[in-house]
Specification:
With about 140 residues, the chain is an all-alpha fold. It has four helices and no strands. α2 (about 50-70) crosses α4 and α3 (about 75-100) packs antiparallel against α4 (about 105-135). The N and C termini lie close together (about 10 Å). The model has no long low-confidence stretch (mean pLDDT about 90).
């Protein structure tokens, strides 16, 4: 239990760093553009409820840690591979579903978001694998 909780903390911290960098470099401007284009459907980033985002990050980090632990992932390299596949496929499915059903994003955003999500997944997966290996004693 200690290993899972400490690793979850490592992944949450890595997630905050990744999303602070990713948000500043790409997502804040993209979300502001979407909010301007679809004001009834998309909140401006400055109006977003961060409580839900933080809760989401904690729950996803915990579930990823439990899953990776059960999969036997205990190195940064194996965590990075699994994280990239998991997040890349998850956001590919999410983005293609959004493209099929809504007019809030275009193909360029969906492709770039899927690629960025795979890279972020690799970094977060590496943090998870590192933590599981480090705290296994």
């Amino acid at each position: 239990m200690k290993k899972v909780l400490l690793t979850t903390l490592v992944v949450v911290i890595a997630g905050f760093v990744m999303f602070a960098v990713g948000g500043a470099l790409y997502y804040m401007d993209a979300m502001a553009e979407m909010a301007a284009a679809f004001p009834d459907a998309v909140k401006n980033p400055s109006d977003a409820d961060m409580t839900m985002g933080i809760a989401n990050m904690i729950v996803i980090s915990l579930l990823t840690t439990i899953s990776f632990d059960r999969m036997g992932i205990s190195t940064a390299a194996s965590g990075a591979k699994a994280g990239a596949w998991f997040m890349g496929l998850l956001f590919l499915a999410f983005n293609t579903q959004m493209l099929a059903m809504y007019n809030t994003m275009d193909l360029n955003f969906a492709v770039l978001d899927t690629a960025i999500s795979a890279v972020m997944g690799a970094v977060l997966g590496a943090a998870c694998g590192f933590g599981l290996g480090k705290f296994s004693n």
